[in-house]
């Protein structure tokens, strides 16, 4: 069964940021970006599904094709998910107004006006992606994520692999997860997270729906072995659209800060202190720094 809707986009919306985020795996086993279209396989209410977003001037058309016969799709639930993924609820205007004239950031923010943080389809996807990406390069993390998805082996009829649900992750023993290149610690963390989500002890979707305070979410995540400050901040950013996590532990963030400040090195502590001045938009600033680094590399 499929459903199709259109959402009007705000002035200045940057589709390419969203498409670039979801198109990072060039082998495209689970999601594929072609021109202005994203196709992404997910598990929707227990069934394999294909979410398609097509961007046009000032709007995005989205549809969900669910395998399994006459499976009902809630239009409201799907619309909320798409709004969240696109970052349409993010309050970015205040940040842009506050720092448009900043001596180090003004040019960057002006050129990247309208930048929003692309969000994962679910908080669980954001958290598991953050665990996979701990202390490895982006290319290594993308490779491990791809193999992780393929190990779960949940296929949509389109041929795409779906990002697995907690129940599907729990079917994979730690030894199998290590075939994706994960360390034993990461494998065990993924299994523990999946177990806690499935049992209801880590109600990540409910937290999103009821807009639970980030402090509550952060405290629950911090209690899990294998999850530290960077993983928490990244999960809150990509899973909940929280724009104030301090991503000073991110190597790319520190590299751009170093370049902006024209210094030889920036430690995690120094980056943390520098970012503190930009509360409550530290994670949004990190997203600008990531985008700026990518732009500078292309220009170079």
From TrEMBL:
CDD domains registered for this protein in UniProt: ENDO3c (cd00056)
Pfam families listed in its UniProt record: HhH-GPD
InterPro entries in the cross-refs: AlkA_N, Alkylbase_DNA_Glycosylase/TA, DNA_glycosylase, HhH-GPD_domain
Entry-linked Gene3D superfamilies: 1.10.1670.40, Hypothetical protein, domain 2 (1.10.340.30)
E.C. numbers: 3.2.2.21
Catalytic activity: Hydrolysis of alkylated DNA, releasing 3-methyladenine, 3-methylguanine, 7-methylguanine and 7-methyladenine
Record domain DNA-3-methyladenine glycosylase AlkA N-terminal: where: 8-122
Keyword Magnesium: no
Alphabetical keyword list: DNA damage, DNA repair
UniProt domain HhH-GPD: residue ranges: 132-294
Name this protein carries in UniProt: DNA-3-methyladenine glycosylase II
Species of the source: Methylophilus luteus
């Amino acid at each position: 069964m499929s459903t199709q809707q259109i959402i009007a986009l705000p002035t200045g919306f940057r589709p390419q940021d969203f498409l670039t985020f979801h198109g990072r795996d060039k082998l495209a086993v689970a999601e594929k970006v072609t021109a202005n279209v994203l196709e992404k396989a997910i598990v929707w209410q227990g069934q394999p599904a294909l979410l398609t977003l097509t961007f046009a001037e000032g709007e995005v058309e989205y549809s969900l094709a669910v395998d399994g016969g006459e499976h009902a799709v809630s239009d409201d639930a799907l619309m909320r998910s798409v709004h969240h993924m696109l970052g349409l609820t993010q309050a970015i205007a205040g940040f842009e107004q506050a720092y448009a004239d900043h001596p180090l950031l003004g040019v960057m923010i002006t050129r990247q006006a309208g930048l929003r943080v692309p969000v994962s389809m679910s908080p669980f996807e954001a958290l598991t992606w953050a665990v996979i990406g701990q202390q490895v390069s982006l290319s290594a993390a993308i490779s491990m994520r791809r193999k992780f998805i393929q190990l779960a082996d949940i296929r949509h009829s389109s041929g795409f692999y779906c990002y697995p649900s907690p129940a599907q992750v729990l079917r994979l023993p730690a030894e199998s997860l290590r075939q994706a290149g994960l360390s034993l610690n990461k494998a065990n963390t993924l299994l523990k997270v999946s177990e806690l989500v499935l049992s209801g002890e880590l109600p990540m979707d409910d937290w999103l729906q009821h807009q639970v305070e980030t402090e509550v979410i952060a405290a629950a995540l911090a209690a899990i072995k294998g999850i530290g400050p960077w993983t928490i901040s990244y999960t809150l950013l990509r899973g909940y659209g929280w724009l104030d996590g301090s991503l000073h532990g991110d190597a790319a963030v520190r590299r751009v800060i170093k370049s902006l400040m024209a210094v030889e090195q920036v430690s995690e502590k120094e980056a943390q202190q520098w970012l503190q001045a930009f509360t409550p938009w530290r994670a949004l600033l990190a997203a600008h720094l990531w985008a700026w680094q990518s732009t500078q590399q292309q220009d170079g």
